[in-house]
Design goal:
Layout lengths: L2 E4 L7 H7 L5 H12 L5 E4 L8 H9 L4 E5 L8 H7 L3 E3 L2 E3 L2 E3 L11 E4 L18 H5 L3 E3 L10 E2 H12 L3
Parallel strand pairs: 1-2, 2-3, 3-4, 6-7, 7-8
Antiparallel strand pairs: 1-9, 5-6
């Protein structure tokens, strides 16, 4: 069993290509990578902002992805938890602990966990002058926050242990 992270897929969101420099076929790239990488015993933690498409299109996408799918709600995920589960997610939440990491959509203050793995900031990151909200810039300096961004990960999900290793190396000063 592998545990994967993905966030901010924004399926069928045409303007995200302009905002974040994505290729126009970003939806197809993300779907293809999820379908090829996920195995039957794997878990996908989607850190929010799933789609701007229809419910039927999301059902079709999720039915083609193997494994369990957990949605950690993002600011654009407006349907009810029940609806997201009817469309193919196995669980919907606002945050979830995996080991000593807390998974969220937006970065949060880390108190009882070693690291916060999140999305939301896309390829702008913590320090970009165009960052969505200046309040997030403080998280870039503390070393306890890891941003997952499709733009920075080749439009592929990442094994959670890879992100935790990145955090551990950062803490060791590597």
């Amino acid at each position: 069993m592998k545990r994967f992270i993905i966030a901010d897929t924004h399926f069928y969101h045409d303007n995200i290509a302009k905002y974040c420099g994505r290729p126009t076929n970003h939806t197809e790239l993300l779907i293809a990578s999820l379908q090829s990488i996920m195995g039957e015993d794997d878990i996908l933690y989607h850190l929010g902002d799933v789609t701007f498409g229809s419910q039927d299109s999301l059902r079709d996408i999720l039915s083609g992805i193997k494994g369990k799918k957990v949605l950690v709600r993002g600011n654009h995920d407006a349907w009810s938890d029940t609806r997201f589960m009817e469309l193919g997610f196995d669980m919907v939440c606002t945050a979830i602990a995996v080991g000593n990491a807390i998974l969220t959509h937006k970065p949060i203050e880390v108190a009882h966990f070693s690291v916060n793995i999140h999305g939301h900031l896309h390829n702008l990151g913590y320090d970009d002058v165009l960052s969505y909200e200046e309040e997030y810039r403080k998280f870039g300096a503390d070393g306890r926050h890891i941003l997952y961004s499709p733009e920075l990960e080749g439009y592929k999900p990442v094994v959670i242990e890879k992100l935790v290793a990145k955090f551990n190396n950062r803490m060791k000063g590597e």
